[in-house]
Write a structure and sequence with these properties.
mainly alpha; 614 residues; two-stranded antiparallel ribbon; 8 strands
Length: 614
Amino acid sequence: MNRFIPWMVAVVAALWLLSGWAPRKVGSDGFDTAAFGKLPVLSGGRLKPLDTVARTSLVIIHGRQTLRLEDGKVLAADHWLADLCFNAPVADKYRVFVINHPDVLGLFGWQQTDRKYFSYAELTPFFKTIDEQGESADKVESAQRSQFQNAILNLRNGLMIYQRLKNSLQPDDARDFSDEINAYVQAIPAGVEATRHKEKNEKFEKDKLDLLAQFVSRYQDLSDFGYALAVPSKPGAEWVTVGKSLLGVLSAGQVHPVVKAYALIGDAYRNGDAALFNQQVQDLSDWMQAHEHRESGRASFESLFNQVEPFYQSMCLYVLAFVVICGSWLGWNRVLNRSAFLLLLLALAVHTFGLVSRMYLQGRPPVTNLYSSAIFIGWGTVIIGLILERLYRDGIGAACASAVGFITLIIAHHLAESGDTLEMLQAVLDTNIWLATHVVVVTLGYSAMFLAGMLALMYVVRGVFTDSLTPTLAQSLTRMTYGVICFATLFSFVGTVLGGIWADQSWGRFWGWDPKENGALLIVLWCAIILHARWGGFIKQRGLMVMALFGNVITSFSWFGVNMLGVGLHSYGFMNKAFPWLIAFVVSQLLLMAFALLPLQNWRSFAVKDSKRV
């Protein structure tokens, strides 16, 4: 019976995963906003579904991908976007903006309470104050800004995104947009004729000219202010805003079918006609499939990717695997070890699906920004950890793999708070094969260094605080750490050299002492120092683990720290939220090193007589 338990655990976990693939049910109001969220638009330089636009915007504004209303109802991001685009008076009352800084609240004469979410309608009287304070804060270097200045800038940025979203598919004050468009089309001939007469200094109908001018001014504002480009101008050509497409009617003579469709969708939504809304969304989806097949298919897949949330599912499985493997050290070793291994394989499969999906959607290598580097480092670490587990079968590799996999995905989760994680944050990453290979290989070096550090952490924690670090386990951990450091040395060195080759082709120099280059070199040098110290007999078990722990410090600085310096070609800007966590991590590793250097009589797992072997 025991041999079937691991497979039963894996099957239950797999069924839980599959539940995330089930199509979303239509809400109680009957509006299929999930289908609406699959419609493709161009935003942030790439084609994406409206669902992604809604999620990333809501994360920036609200800090979450869903909105909880005052009555306790949870509103999906695409439903919130439909309200915002087609029924702004309702959306303006949602408490979506986060304000928790007392000085920002003080600007509006509000007292700080447990409440931290406020609506657009509540903030409307203070737009001028917010804009003035935000403009002043924007002149200060990011690293020098106070918490108040960051808070007011975030609020102003959120308000700007909110206002632009309201004017993406139609004007925010539109009430019957399809009739308005018809009136505009009918006004064009007489308005154009009046314009000609005016230019010739002939008598003209001023009211007809003024009416057309009002429409043109209205749609020019819509064109300039729209957040998403929702209209494909021609098959395979650039996309434009609804406003720009309407301005093009002056020369084209007809309204684009997508503009008409969004007008009908909005009218149906405002009128509460769910059946008509769903039908119009389906008609527009069919049109996109017929005329923009590739973009429509990619947008639908990205919407599914958003729904499945593979990295969240992986995090949950990594935690479960870690708990199971810890339980195996307390008893029932073989069954729980096997269960944890299968859970890790399942988590890795989901993690891989997420990674490959991002590559497909982005059309790029797996590592293009800090977010994707965290995803890839975790993925590489889990693979190496599973290999170690397969070789040693003692739970150590599985425990380290699950821990690092979870931690890196948590890091990625917090990095996603800045918006769309599929954006190409650095233009230099969109070049040739040398760079793509360099980034992937160097990141695998990061993965190995963090895994070596995790193995060292396990050695120290179990040795100092428990009596479970037996001589056999200590020797096993030492072999694993040494092997992983060898792997890290190879990949860090090769990746650094490949980066130099790319830099020589792109910038005309192999090495420029850029902070990121120096960070990569530090990892290579530290790996070499560890190996030479081990080969020369200067360190034994304990020394190897202490140096591996310090490898965590060097790698974290090379991965994150150099990006915060604000200088160099690899600088992504100072990150206020990340900096304290980076310092906390460094301090934790230094503390562990201090514990590791305690006299052996203070280690619960070692007696003085064992000192020769450590």
